[in-house]
Amino acid sequence: MRFLSEKQIPVAVKLRDGETVSGWIEYFDERMIRLTREGKPNLFIYKHQIRTITEQTSRHGSRLRHARKAADEQEAALDGEHK
Description:
Layout: H1 2-6, E1 11-15, E2 20-28, E3 32-36, E4 43-46, E5 50-55, H2 61-82
Antiparallel strand pairs: 1-2, 1-5, 2-3, 3-4
């Protein structure tokens, strides 16, 4: 969950009632998540209402690639500092 939140990876959250909502996890704690959505209101969802959380790559692949590229660049910069 921390990785998904830190990298702003788009996710699909399937709820126990069958509804699916999409966005990225901006915040979470032991009881709930805050799902941030583009062009729609953000949602606070209690974890007991969630059936599954899956990474989305099809519709928001460019955001995912950008997040992974930024992480790789940051890691490379840190490696360069240690040499």
